[in-house]
Design a protein that fits this description.
Radius of gyration: 20 Å
CATH topology of the largest domain: inorganic pyrophosphatase (n-terminal core)
Number of strands: 12
Order of helices and strands: HEHEEHEHEEHHHHHEEHHEEHEEHH
CATH superfamily of the largest domain: inorganic pyrophosphatase (n-terminal core)
Shape: globular
Bound molecules: manganese (II) ion
Largest sheet: 6 strands, parallel
CATH architecture of the largest domain: Alpha-Beta Complex
């Protein structure tokens, strides 16, 4: 975001506005953390602010301050549509294309509001008057912090804002500030958030120590299903509908499973294929280490995308057909995946 844009935006927000803040569909920790962080910040002024999520999100995010105020579009359309219709200002956070909000898309396309985007994904669409897009950022939550900083309002960050932003930075950096997008600036930001009241240890507990027995057993099943493609330094996991049913699957239960594959020594790419329960398609998550771009891979072959080291996609084939197709297309990357990448420790 350029400085003159910020001054413009500040001016635009200097009188009371009806503001709607929207995360992407199937919101994750960064999406919920950033929208609620911004919500608490804008609420300090005379605005009328609401977060509208396209759909529900997992239980482990439902402790965040202000979470109970979020309107879910898919289950409360009437409220959501009237809020969107009245909005002067719409912030879209942690996504950059209306395709990521599904059913809400036509409503946003139809209204005459000012859009502001805060996001760290690649190749943003061009719908926002105010655009803060930076793929080098660890998380949208870190960007919301920098946004408040640019607004000259760091002293307005209270415990609620700090808690939400900390949670999103933690989840988007792999739960432990481990992804390469974690910089010294990220650490300075989280240090400041702790100073401002974020309880890092409790937040970690609330996010990660909430397993049910059936979820742990589903993880056991996923790990049993893990297949190593040694010649590609790649692993994949499959989970079928009946396996999900057997272990009493709930939304969010498979979150993080794909990362176990990456923890195997020498592995560069990990993928999980999960049969969707309601509709007939396979949801895919891709993770990589080093220079292999799963964003490109997902875009080219699986109708998806994301970041260099973390992306999502889908397949409308059966599980067997999907795996066969995957094995065919990964073949092309054999030389790249066999290369040794230098470490600098
Ligand atoms: Mn994010």
């Amino acid at each position: 975001m350029k400085m003159n844009d910020i001054q413009d935006l500040k001016k635009a927000l200097s009188s009371p506005k009806n503001i709607v803040i929207i995360p992407h569909k199937n919101p994750d920790g960064d999406a919920i953390g950033s929208t609620l962080g911004l919500y608490h910040y804008l609420n300090k002024f005379d605005h009328n602010v609401k977060v509208i999520a396209p759909n529900d999100y997992p239980e482990f995010l439902k402790w965040m301050p202000g979470e109970e105020t979020i309107v879910k579009f898919d289950s409360d359309k009437e409220t959501a549509i009237s809020l969107i219709d009245k909005a002067d200002f719409i912030f879209t956070l942690d996504f950059n294309s209306f395709n990521r909000i599904d059913e809400m898309k036509p409503y946003l396309e139809a209204i005459n509001a000012t859009f502001a985007m805060i996001d760290h994904h690649q190749q943003p669409d061009d719908y926002a008057t105010y655009m803060y897009s930076d793929v080098s950022m660890s998380s949208t939550c870190q960007m919301v912090y920098h946004f408040i900083e640019q607004m000259n309002d760091l002293e307005k960050i209270d415990k609620d804002i700090a808690t939400c932003l900390y949670a999103g930075i933690l989840t988007d950096t792999g739960g432990s500030f481990r992804f390469p997008s974690t910089t010294s600036v990220t650490h300075r930001v989280v240090a400041d958030l702790i100073d401002k009241g974020a309880n890092n240890s409790e937040i970690h507990n609330a996010l990660y120590d909430t397993n049910s027995l059936s979820r742990l057993q589903l993880l056991g099943c996923a790990l049993k299903n893990l297949v190593v493609l040694k010649e590609y330094n790649t692993v994949y996991i499959t989970l079928t509908k009946s396996e999900l049913q057997q272990y009493d699957f709930k939304k969010g239960d498979t979150e993080g499973f794909v990362n176990y594959g990456l923890s195997l020594k020498g592995i560069k790419v990990a993928i999980i294929f999960i049969e969707n329960q309601a509709e007939d398609y396979i949801k895919i998550s891709f993770r990589s280490k080093g220079s292999f771009s799963v964003n490109e891979f997902a875009r080219n072959y699986f109708n998806g995308g994301g970041h260099t080291n973390a992306a999502g996609g889908r397949s409308d084939l059966t599980m067997d057909e999907t795996i066969n197709y995957f094995k065919r297309v990964i073949e092309k990357y054999k030389p790249q995946l066999q290369q040794n990448e230098e470490h600098t420790l």
